[in-house]
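Our preliminary data section would be incomplete without showing what the modeling component actually yields. Below, a chain of 318 amino acids is followed by its predicted structure, encoded as tokens that our downstream tools consume directly.
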Amino acid sequence: MKYAILGAGMSGATIAHALHQQGHEVIAFDKGRGVGGRMSSRRTDHGAVDHGAQYFTAQTPEFLDAVHLWMQEGWVQRWGDQIVASSGDERRLSTSVQRFIGTPIMTGPIKGLLAQVETHTQHTAKRVYRQDHAWWIQVAELSEAIGPFDAVISSVPLPQLPPLFDALPPQWLAQWSGITMTPCWALMVDWGRAAPDAFDGWFVNDTFIDWIAQNDRKPGRIGQPHWTLHATESWSQVHEEDAPESVIAQARQWLIDRGFGPPNTITAHRWRYARSQGEAAEAAYWDEGLRLGVVGDWLGGGRVEGAWRSARALLKHL
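Predicted structure:
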């Protein structure tokens, strides 16, 4: 069969890799400049910084087996010996779980999974429709639709899904009605000198900032002191439509108020669909009559493992 995969994050890459191994013709599409989705890194003049997913964990034996295979391939390594969490005015070392990062940057496992798959980036799907018992994809960057495809599998965030299709099974929409996706503001802080504090990652537990990572303490990343800050879910929801300049100004003042001093530069990125709330009845959806599938971290329980779990669930349907 000829499959189109919409989205080249963890769930899309996992299903594309598996179908390709089974001998199907698979073409993946992503609107970004590169693959990875929220597991992406931003290039700078001094190296790469992780501004989306900072690390991932493996809670199930099945996913841990997959991670170990990725480690053997050189796509992943362990990280985070010095992860701390705020407890009042004190910090305690957080050693409850093993944490992993992609190598040489966060997209390592995504690029590995898609290495043999035809992948088109900067292809923004704006309409996916059936014609003559086949699927066609209208891409914003092209004048003519791409197709035909025997089947389509979507891994895009839930809010972007219904507008793409002329119609989706009503029972699916009913089961997804309780799921919402929330934003996250990410701040990338270049100190331009020695960092004002030492840790790998810090669960801050503040009303504004809940996480800080030192990108220069991740192997293969940037070569000078650089932090990534993630705003809290509640703050990001309230300030979702703020201008980046406003978010940057607040982050700068927050750092100064805590004695870290003014950084060299700060840039901001809004992840509009960073987290999901609510659960669906299934981890993946497949309609055999339509030959349409849906996967995503928002179906699999969130996070990187949830995206992988959703893709593996769809493979059982297929």
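The domain at 2-79+106-179+280-317 is CATH 3.50.50.60 (FAD/NAD(P)-binding domain). The longest helix spans residues 303-317. Preliminary results of this kind motivate Aim 1 of the renewal.
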